[in-house]
Amino acid sequence: MKRTSKSRAWSLRARQRCAGQDGASGFTLMELLIVLLVASGLALVCFNALLADGQLVGRMAERWRQRQERERALDLIRHDLVQGDDVLTDPRLAEHRCSMSKRQPVLVVATKAGPITYAIGPPPSSIWAGRVLMRCGPAFTKAGVWSRKSFLSRVLVDGLQPPETPWRQCPMAGGVEVGNSFALPLSVCMEPATGLATVRISQGQEDSTASAVVGLHRLTVADSVQGKTGD
Predict the structure, then answer these.
(1) Is residue 69 in some structural domain?
(2) Which of 39, 51, 112, 178 has a CA 20 to 30 Å removed from the CA of 221?
(3) Which domain holds residue 176?
């Protein structure tokens, strides 16, 4: 009986010792909850960082797209100015080939193929965002020249916004404001003595500027003819 009692006591102490060792080497429920909470917080921080990085990339891509659109529009405006004959300082007095309903004409270039009007206004459809810059003028042929038979109206840039810092005066000396446009998303200034015109397209914080001499093609042709005569 004594041996049996001693054996039972020894077994009980051994089980208690093993149970104590197991409890010391494991995790309590509270510890597991704390670890899970910390891991969830770290995962949330990483997710927010990735989300912010994706949004930044998206904004940069959108700015790049807008800049490309502004540059293409300015290239077209430069072409029309160089190939045109004159710029009307008051575009409201011009005869437009397209409807100007709810649109504000800003730049009108007189050409032999007909007037070319650049106007700003609401988008013609929901695919465009915000105010848009539209060109109403002769279409281009396959040879890249104006067509005297067909006129079309097309959107060049959307998302127009007034400039944050409007021009107070023309960038060049002797220039005059065209169409009261300095506070508009399309700002135009022209120097009558030289025919130099400066155009700015603004989308709020972002804008692009270009300059061209109105009717430069006539000077080029005159120089070419004079050169041939001299030869």
Answers:
(1) no
(2) 178
(3) 86-218
Residue 176 lies in a domain: yes
pLDDT tens by residue, 136-188: 999 888 877 888 788 889 999 999 999 999 999 998 888 999 989 999 999 99
Residue 149 counted as domain residue: yes
Q: CB within 8 A of 167, min separation 6: which ones?
A: 177, 182, 187, 189, 200
Q: What are phi and psi of 214, to 5 degrees?
A: -65, 130
* Confidence at residue 228, expressed as pLDDT on a 0 to 100 scale: 47
What is the pTM (predicted TM-score) of this model?
A: 0.72
In angstroms, the CA 24 to CA 203 distance is 66
Q: What whole-number distance in Å separates Cα of residue 87 and Cα of residue 175?
A: 13
Structural domain count of the chain: 1
Burial class of residue 87 (count of CB atoms within 10 Å of its CB; 0-12, 13-18, 19+): buried
Q: How far apart are CA 210 and CA 201, in angstroms?
A: 9
E strand or H helix at 72, and its extent? helix 29-83
